[in-house]
Amino acid sequence: MDSDSSSLVYLNVGGKKFCTYNDTLTRPEPNSMLATMFSGRHSLIQDHEGYTFIDRDGEYFGYILNWLRDSDVPSLKDSKYSQLRTEGGRIL
């Protein structure tokens, strides 16, 4: 994995596809699991299309990715917000 901050990263999170910059995954939370995964120091599992696979809930990852991009906290119902906090705590 090229750890260049401007390189695109293609993700398959629980079956949902995402595309972002390496910098988006590593810069905002430098001690997070995502930053560690995409530091270039680890081998990553890729699916048959070349997307890096992350075995988490893709429904909530979009919210996490938006938060990493611009610190936007979504407005959700309490039960969904609770699940988002759980997912975020596991991946960040």
Describe the 3D structure.
- The chain has 92 residues and is α+β, with helices and mostly antiparallel strands.
- The protein has one domain: Potassium Channel Kv1.1, Chain A (2-Layer Sandwich), CATH 3.30.710.
- It contains four helices and three strands; from the N terminus they run ββααβαα.
- The protein has helices at residues 22-26, 33-37, 58-70, 78-91; strands at residues 8-13, 16-21, 52-54.
- It has a three-stranded mixed beta sheet.
- A hairpin with a 2-residue loop joins strand 1 (8-13) and strand 2.
- Helix 3 packs across helix 4.
- The protein is globular and about 35 Å long.
- The model has no long low-confidence stretch (mean pLDDT 87).
- Residues 9-87 form the Potassium channel tetramerisation-type BTB domain.
- This is Putative chromatin remodeling & transcription regulator BTB-POZ family.
- InterPro entries: BACURD1-3, SKP1/BTB/POZ_sf, T1-type_BTB.
- Pathway: Protein modification; protein ubiquitination.
- Pfam families: BTB_2 (PF02214).
